[in-house]
Write a structure and sequence with these properties.
Layout lengths: L6 E6 L4 H14 L7 E8 H8 L14 E6 L11 H11 L1 H10 L6 E5 L5 H8 L3 E4 L4 H27 L1
Parallel strand pairs: 1-2, 1-4, 2-3, 4-5
Organism: Quercus suber
Family: Belongs to the UDP-glycosyltransferase family.
Keywords: Membrane, Transmembrane, Transmembrane helix
Length: 169
């Protein structure tokens, strides 16, 4: 029988409910079969951990095979900016990387795999610096692709119509 290599995966979701829920679902799927030698640490802000676990701080770490845990970074966005996605997105992209890197340096056992939300973008630089393989999570539902194809068709048709209009008039 071949030996199982232990993997410690850091899961880094974009700090919004739909992204965190999607990342938690992926992590549950990855950890669903015991005996695969995997530990997953989901990295969230302190505020999001309190939203996930409510008043019971042990709640998020309750899973049947003890392979998923949470680790927190300080809140990187002031509450005032949370309502406006543009500034929120910019702050997350500018200020979240350093606390995550510091956290990864402290985790024991050391992280040797990263799953990151594609919306963040900066985890690629982090993974390259630390020489850790990275996988991306694209958390948009399949319905998006149905809508995207209709936009593409509309854009193509409208561009064609605009071109015809300019050519004939």
């Amino acid at each position: 029988m071949e030996s199982i290599t232990f993997q410690h995966v850091a899961a880094i979701p974009f700090p919004c409910q739909g992204h965190i829920n999607a990342m938690m679902g992926v992590c549950k799927s990855l950890s669903s079969k015991p005996g695969h030698g995997i530990l997953i640490t989901i990295v969230v802000t302190e505020e999001w951990l309190s939203c996930i676990c409510g008043s019971d701080p042990s709640k998020p770490n309750d899973n049947s095979n003890n392979t998923i845990c949470f680790a927190t970074i300080p809140n990187v966005v002031e509450r005032e900016k949370m309502g406006d996605f543009g500034p929120f997105n910019e702050v997350v992209k500018a200020k979240m990387e350093a606390p995550v890197e510091e956290l990864l340096d402290r985790l024991d056992p050391p992280v040797n795999r990263i799953i990151a939300d594609f919306e963040l973008q900066w985890p690629l630089d982090l993974a390259i610096r630390k020489e850790i393989p990275i996988a991306w999570l694209w958390s948009i539902s399949a319905f998006f692709f149905l809508h995207a194809s209709s936009l593409l068709c509309f854009h193509t048709a409208s561009s064609f119509a605009t071109s015809l209009y300019r050519y004939h008039y």
